[in-house]
Design goal:
The protein is built from 4 helices and 6 strands. By secondary structure, the protein is an alpha/beta fold.
C-alpha cells in the first residue's frame, strides 16, 4: 500500500495518477475529506494534527508520501505544519514505511543562485523558516537512520508570502 497524505492537493492528485498509471499500485488517499482520483483508490479520513489518526491512516503502508498543504496563512504554517510532519514521520517509522517528503523552495536563498542539494538554507521570512525547520526534521530523521526518507523538491510558483513569483527561484 502506498499512502498519500494531503490527498486533495495538486501534487497529491498528480502523484496518485502517476502511481496508478505506472505501478497499478494500491493507493490510499488521506485527508480530512479525501476524494478519489483513480477508481481503485482507497480513501481514509484523518486530521494530520492528530497523531492517532495519522498512525491509523498510515498503518500497513510500504511508502508514505507527505504532500499536505495549508492555506497561505503564516500563523497556520507556524502552528500546524511542524506537528503534521512530525505525526507523519512517527507514523511512517512505526509502520516501517519509506517516507517521501514533497517540499518547496522557500527555505533557500530567494535569488538567482543555482540550487543544489548542497545549497544552504537561507530562509527569507517566517514561512521560509517554517519550511527550513520542516526540511531539517526530515534530514535529521534520515541522518539518524530512524526511517528511510527522501525529500523531493519542487519549484515554487509563489514567493514565501504567497504572491506569484515573477521568476523561478
Amino acid at each position: 500500500m502506498q499512502t498519500v497524505l494531503g490527498a486533495n492537493g495538486q501534487i497529491a492528485v498528480e502523484l496518485a495518477r502517476e502511481l496508478d498509471r505506472e505501478y497499478g499500485a494500491d493507493v490510499r488517499l488521506v485527508s480530512r475529506n479525501p476524494r478519489r482520483v483513480n477508481d481503485s483508490d482507497t480513501l481514509a479520513r484523518a486530521d494530520l494534527l492528530d497523531a492517532r489518526q495519522t498512525a491509523a491512516a498510515v498503518d500497513g503502508s510500504s511508502i508514505v508520501y507527505f504532500t499536505a498543504g495549508l492555506p497561505a496563512n503564516t500563523k497556520l504554517w507556524e502552528q500546524q505544519f511542524p506537528a503534521m510532519l512530525q505525526n507523519a514521520l512517527d507514523a511512517a517509522r512505526t509502520a516501517g514505511a519509506k517516507f517521501a517528503y514533497f517540499d518547496n523552495t522557500y527555505m533557500y536563498p530567494q535569488d538567482d543562485r543555482l540550487q543544489t542539494e548542497q545549497t544552504p538554507f537561507e530562509p527569507v521570512g517566517p514561512k521560509g523558516r517554517v519550511r527550513a525547520a520542516m526540511a531539517s526534521m526530515v534530514l535529521d530523521e534520515m541522518a539518524r537512520g530512524r526511517s528511510r526518507s527522501s525529500s523531493v523538491g519542487r519549484r515554487s510558483s509563489t514567493d514565501p508570502d504567497g504572491r506569484r513569483a515573477s521568476r523561478t527561484p
